[in-house]
Amino acid sequence: MLKNPIDHFSHPDDVPPEKGSLLNQYQKLYPCNPQARAPLAEILQLHREKDIVHFDVPGHKQGKGNPDLTDFLGEKALSIDVGSMKMVDNLIHPTSVIKEAEELAAEAFSSHSAFFMVNGTSGAIQAMIMSSLDPGDELILPRNVHRSIINGLILAHAKPVYVNPGVHPEPCIPLRISAADVAQAFKEYPNAKAVLVNHPTYYGICSNLEEIARLAHKANMRVLVDGAHGTHFYFGKDYPVSAMGAGADMAAHSIHKTGGSLTQSSLLLLGEGVKDEVSYIRQVVNLTQTTSASYLLMASLDLTRRMLALRGKEIFERVSELACYARDEVNKLGGYYAFSKEAVDGDAFFDF
After folding, report:
1. pLDDT, tens digit (0-9, with 9 covering 90-100), for 97-154
2. How far apart are CA 23 and CA 5, in angstroms?
3. What CATH number does residue 99 fall under?
4. Which residues, at least 6 apart from 95, have a Cβ–Cβ distance to it below 8 Å?
């Protein structure tokens, strides 16, 4: 079983426990690495220590106004469930600690920009589509997509152009769209504005995203990636290429799924291809994202980004070992098949 990464420090005696020690230990162990910072979490810790009296929302008043909730969640959680104020910045128009936290996330995930999303990857996907398509525009996408993508098309008044994925015969699960099928769709629908790819699918199956991105950019189409289950690709060894590494223009990632943050917290990553549209994309994000962003969710993104940036390779190496062990044990039972890279065919099952 994986331990908390904080327990993996080489010299724990060099990092004595103290107030806010969890926030300080990384900076002491990585003094020259900016990724050791967690600016939003740090300011929330400072806010907690100041014991500020609030005359604003939320109404639970750091738990004092709702003892049942305090008993259930604990004082620490409720003490940082605050409203937007100058000290802790504002997600709608970040200028200080949230801005810095998003910049650190962009660096950690090898992207030009990163937006904290508190209404899940569904919100990030809708923002990708709405900022990329005008009413009547066509989007090339696989038939087996998440409902948020269909909702995004509805909101954008855009038109879907479906490419049917294959089906793997033994586990009987849908595969990915092949680069050849996508290239054919480009020929048949040359006026399409973008292509959207799941990377990976719910089952971990990947298309040849690099080739699809190359073909799309050659056709002057934007590449959008639903990477809800692909956070680990940025940090693990021998994993499929990440969305940003493959040349995607925009990618939505559920950091809570395979990264470790709180449920409903995600990132929207922007590549170099849309660097001139960051302000516009922020405006589109703000159309549907709440104005009462949860600082618990945002702090979890900040802390998780730091953990992954500093310890991600080590963590996911261990995770891969455990996954391989589990697959081997399942396949020994008989009557079950937990597939792995042996099923890769270089086409609709390009990587895993």
Report:
1. 999 999 999 999 999 999 999 999 999 999 999 999 999 999 999 999 999 999 999 9
2. 13
3. 3.40.640.10
4. 89
